[in-house]
Amino acid sequence: MTNLKVEWAYRPDALVVTVTGELDAGTVVHLRDGLVAARAGAPVPPSAVVLDLSRLEFLDSGGLALLLEVHQECAAAGQALTVVGATRPVLRPLELTGLDQVFTVVPAVP
């Protein structure tokens, strides 16, 4: 059993991936697998990817590394990446590492 739940929804303008639980070195594979499945199942390639992390309770360096990979993949595919996460467990690690200046971080799903 994992401490991470990944769900996704397709919108006309974006793929929205909602992540609940703990994103750490032991669970990043579940988010990676979810992103691969979500992208593969998209009716058309999305122009934007929204990662809703507002339900995360914990985010460590393994999770941050994956977020950076996703950011790079989206940039290479010409997709905008937005990270939703106005909660302390998300904002604090992003701010400490300076990634809040790399990602577009918003308080709620646009």
Automatic annotation (TrEMBL):
Protein family (similarity comment): Belongs to the anti-sigma-factor antagonist family.
Name of the protein in its database record: Anti-sigma factor antagonist
Family matches, as Pfam families: STAS
SUPFAM superfamilies: SpoIIaa-like (SSF52091)
NCBIfam families in the cross-refs: ant_ant_sig (TIGR00377)
CDD domains tied to this protein: STAS_anti-anti-sigma_factors
STAS domain sequence ranges: 4-110
InterPro entries attached to this UniProt entry: Anti-sigma_ant (IPR003658), STAS_dom (IPR002645), STAS_dom_sf (IPR036513)
